[in-house]
Amino acid sequence: MHVLCCGGTGCHASASAQIIENFKRILAEKGLQDEVQVIQTGCFGFCEKGPIVKIMPDNTFYTQVKPEDVEKIVNEHIIKGRKVTDLLYMDPENQEHVSDSKHMGFYRKQLRIALRNCGFVNPENIDECIARGGYEGLGKCLTEMTPQQVIDEVTKSGLRGRGGAGFPTGVKWGLCAKNKCDEMYVICNADEGDPGAFMDRSIMEGDPHSIVEAMAICGYAIGATHGLVYIRAEYPLAIHRLQVAIAQAREYGLLGEDIMGTGFNFDIELRYGAGAFVCGEETALIHSMEGKRGEPTLKPPFPAVSGYMAKPSNVNNVETFANVPIIITKGADWFQTIGSEKSKGTKVFALAGQINNVGLIEVPMGTTLRDIIFEIGGGIKGGRQFKAVQTGGPSGGCLTTKHLDTPIDYDSLVAAGSMMGSGGMVVMDETSCMVAIAKFYLEFTCEESCGKCSPCRVGNKRMLEILEKITDGRGTMEDLQELRNLAAVIKDTALCGLGQTSPNPVLSTLDNFWDEYVEHVVDKKCRAGVCKKLMRYEIDREKCIGCGKCAKNCPAEAISKTNYIAEGHKLPSMEIDPAKCIKCGACMSGCKFNAISVK
Amino acid sequence: MAKVKSLAELKAMREKLQTGLDLREKSNDPDSLVQIKVAMATCGIAAGAKQVMEHLMEKADELKLAVVFTQTGCMGYCHAEPTIEVRVPGRDPLVFGHVDNKRADEILTKYVMNNEMVEGIIPVNYETIG
After folding, report:
1. Which of A410, A429, A448 is the last residue of a domain?
2. pTM for the complete prediction?
3. Residue by residue, what is the 3-state secondary structure of A358-384?
4. CATH number reported for the structural domain that contains residue A575 in this entry
5. For A127-286, where are the E strands, in sequence order?
6. Which residue from A85, A178, A527, A558 lies 20 to 30 Å from A343 (Cα-Cα)?
7. Is B123 within 8 Å of A45 when comparing Cβ atoms?
8. CB interface of A with B, residues 307-336, below 8 Å
């Protein structure tokens, strides 16, 4: 028998260590230490009801266990085999106690659809993929459905583009299919570039066959025989696994000519990108594949009319494709039952930042930020305070505590001033400065702007300069207004999605963290202590004994002796010249008397 | 390998392959194989999954344990890489995080051989559609 006790940060904070100790002690007292083993585990992702204790092998799941409950669990459950009912999880819907975690719908907040095979199959073995139902969706399309039926099914499912903007996938396919042509293309956009996002890479590395299958399905639906994957060269393992998958599919006759004896031909080629962010924009991506500069062009014409080599092309993101085969095999009706009213299915998020369980998660649309951050994510690192979460990368924005209970889907995120983006989610605590965060994303956009249109090329640079001015302590209130003016113009006039959304990180932080901007501008203060130029190192002359170590450590010779000798000290105290100080902190880390502080 | 010529053939193939997987996964025969999956996406490999897998293979040989090793994609536990999933016939699969060579030895000698739990279990907190 085993007692598993959650050792996640949340449970640890509510005395799980004490619980483990009590188990060990009481079991030893009863002479059961050899039969029952007590083990500390990682986070169960159910911190709200922690500490969690699970008894194996019968899978009993106790919630909110207190150290004093341990004796009862040992006496009742372990010795007499009776479950301790009042510690079991109570189902909020029918007020019944649930003992087995497998039956706790609420506990399982994560549902893996796009990631269904990731971490389950060997990605380099097509047999394992077929054993999990791979290529059955394609088979069903080819033998039982007309192309129009496939498009209708995908449209009905409510699947929307997972690349960020959320355009209905079925509608996109339908628009492309209308432009019948001798040569058409299915393009997979695998140019994942948001800082901190890696869901597409994980899908390609963990389940490449789902992408191969989905592209063939799309080809059948729109009438294309060529598939192209635009993938960045900096994803070597994903490239390798896709290559292996394509080769295996060809060998099995699941790609190539006369697939499954139906007369349908389809094959896939890889195209490598050099890792430019703008090439995730579909027109820029197509130009890059054609060997031209990766620059966007005005839409219309949309790629559905004139795409790769001026032929009708359909571009979808990796995660979008990963959802397609399962929609075909399980049906649109099934897919519709998952998610929120206007956003169906699930979304994969890459959880990063100041959060305990950094990881790749997949949740139904409509899950709240609170569930994602505090349950699945296990809360904020080091027990610090949650401050903001950045979604949507450089095109998205920062959401705050007031958005924690908003169910997230495409529309609610836009309404809150952010966007879904590809699904990067960077969690920040009070040690993050929101002005510096806005600056970071704008630096990224300036770096990645292709330079074709002036609002993006020039406007973003001007905005960045203003932000630098603010973080340097030279900002004025007029600058804040100027930021808003520039942002509005860039949004309205930039050529492509990159430019149109680039002011979002600034706008959302201006809206949600106005106080912090004002503090930087008026009080010349950065409350998180991130903006170095706003920091001031000071020596407390009452504490300073005048040893001079700080002056020796100072690389800028900014520290000198004063005339003041504090009571009880023999030597005069030191002082820092703020004009010379470079804020390196060498003085403070060297001081043994805690006389130096940052203001 | 013969080409798949129809959907019916694919389905037959699936059934055959599935039984193969089931035999590996569900058999109660204590002599049947233990299955260990190592999460080997870029991030897992960067965290040392490849070395750990090689080490596990050597150690399993040394202990004369019949283990099937499989590489797989990302399990999603970036905070605990390298991660491995261990399926011992007759027991629920368990995921272990932060597996280095030392912990790998522990998992084989204690958990696989003696059904003794070791620290570092990551509870699976998601549902997958099959």
Report:
1. A429
2. 0.85
3. CEEEEEECCCEHHHHHHHHCCCEHHHC
4. 3.30.70.3270
5. 185-190, 226-232, 256-259, 264-273
6. A178
7. yes
8. 326, 330
